[in-house]
């Protein structure tokens, strides 16, 4: 009896102390503990969409410059994911080689920080198709005709830069679309930092192309600006939105409605366009449908969001 009496008294003492401690924790935690969630689950899932693109960029730039990619330069990053299909060293002049090598090495940094920050949400390299045949198909789709000879991005610097025009920009718009969805401070800091460099990469490629925008791309009858305008138009169609502009636009779309030159793609306020995760996938699959893989991703992307669409 005595023991039971004592123990139930100490039980209520423990309960009281627990309640007080809980109250203190709640009072302290509501303002500050929430802010310490640097990455929420949804943050990880949103950032996973971008990881698919970072793999593409890394392999495409590194191979073009060096003739090899992550497996040789950063073998800890692909985590056993399959080798890209058809990727090659490109025939680049010295300046283009110098620039593309830097872009590729930047991507090693991006993947390394993503591997560190995403932890178990990081996934192995996805299957990529970077073959010249696949590129030719994409460019044919942009022009709505079969180019003859088929467009080969690895043939020379100009062709390579035109092909590269298709890549960081989708990442840029994806990051712009992702940031408002993020909750954790760490996630926001990471994606803001990735966005800065992605925007810079796009600007570097566009600037190099801008210097020759009115020249024909041999042996075709189209200028560099026309290639970029067609590619952007295709990407708008695939995204079911107006989020993409080439190097020349109607005056009404130009900066402040005054110019047709369009060194950067932006809306009427010169603010970057955004793509949702779904629009990013629709675009890079080349199918206009995030449930139907294709394009650079013959088996689709990985991560919760991409897999969710692939299942539906
Ligand atoms: C390109 O770089 C190579 C190797 O560094 C050098 O030998 C060559 O002279 C350079 N070509 C031009 C046009 O600068
Ligand atoms: C997707 O990522 C998971 C790890 O998160 C991995 O186990 C799986 O094999 C990956 N799937 C594909 C198709 O790459
Ligand atoms: C959370 O992210 C911020 C911003 O990047 C960083 O300063 C801080 O150290 C991170 N906190 C933890 C617990 O990782
Ligand atoms: C995009 O769609 C519009 C409207 O259907 C069409 O006129 C245009 O040719 C398409 N552009 C490309 C590059 O697919
Ligand atoms: C930009 O403004 C022009 C002129 O007002 C308008 O015609 C055009 O549709 C606008 N573009 C976008 C993307 O909102
Ligand atoms: C996308 O493809 C899936 C699977 O084929 C289909 O069920 C769905 O209707 C398509 N969505 C759109 C918007 O076309």
Distance separating the two termini? 64 Å
Global geometry: globular
Number of helical runs? 11
Bound molecules: 2-acetamido-2-deoxy-beta-D-glucopyranose
Keywords:
disordered N terminus; mainly alpha; 312 residues; binds 2-acetamido-2-deoxy-beta-D-glucopyranose
Please explain how this structure is put together.
By secondary structure, the chain is mainly alpha-helical. The chain has one domain (36-311). The chain is 56% helix and 0% strand. It has eleven helices and no strands. The longest helix is centred in the N-terminal third of the chain and has 31 residues, at 2-32. The termini are far apart. 41% of the residues are buried. The site of one 2-acetamido-2-deoxy-beta-D-glucopyranose has 3 residues, from loops. This is Desiccation-related protein PCC13-62. It comes from Sphagnum troendelagicum.
Question: Can you summarize this structure?
Answer:
With 312 residues, this protein is mostly helical. It has helices at residues 2-32, 41-66, 70-73, 94-118, 132-143, 157-164, 168-178, 185-210, 224-239, 277-284, 304-311. The protein has one domain (36-311).
């Amino acid at each position: 009896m005595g023991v039971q009496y004592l123990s139930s008294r100490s039980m209520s003492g423990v309960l009281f102390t627990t309640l007080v401690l809980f109250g203190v924790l709640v009072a302290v935690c509501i303002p500050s503990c929430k802010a310490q969630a640097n990455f929420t689950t949804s943050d990880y899932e949103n950032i996973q969409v971008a990881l698919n693109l970072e793999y593409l960029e890394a392999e495409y730039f590194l191979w073009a410059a060096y003739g090899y990619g992550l497996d040789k330069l950063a073998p800890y990053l692909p985590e056993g994911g399959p080798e890209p299909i058809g990727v090659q060293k490109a025939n680049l002049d010295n300046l283009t080689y110098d620039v593309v090598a830097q872009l590729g090495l930047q991507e090693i940094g991006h993947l390394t920080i993503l591997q560190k920050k995403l932890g178990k949400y990081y996934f192995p390299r996805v299957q990529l198709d970077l073959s010249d045949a696949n590129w030719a198909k994409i460019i044919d789709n942009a022009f709505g005709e079969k180019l003859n000879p088929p467009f080969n991005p690895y043939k020379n610097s100009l062709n390579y830069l035109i092909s590269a025009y298709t890549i960081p920009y989708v990442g840029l718009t994806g990051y712009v679309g992702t940031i408002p969805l993020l909750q954790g401070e760490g996630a926001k800091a990471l994606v803001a930092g990735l966005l800065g460099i992605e925007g810079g990469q796009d600007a570097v490629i566009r600037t190099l192309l801008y210097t020759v925008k009115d020249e024909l791309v041999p042996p075709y009858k189209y200028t560099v600006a026309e290639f970029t305008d067609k590619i952007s138009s295709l990407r708008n169609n695939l995204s079911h939105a107006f989020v993409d502009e080439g190097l020349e636009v109607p005056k009404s779309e130009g900066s402040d409605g005054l110019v047709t030159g369009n060194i950067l793609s932006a809306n009427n306020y010169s603010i970057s366009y955004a793509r949702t995760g779904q629009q990013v996938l629709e675009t890079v699959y080349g199918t206009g449908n995030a449930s139907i893989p294709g394009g650079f991703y013959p088996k689709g992307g990985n991560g919760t969001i991409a897999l969710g669409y692939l299942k539906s």
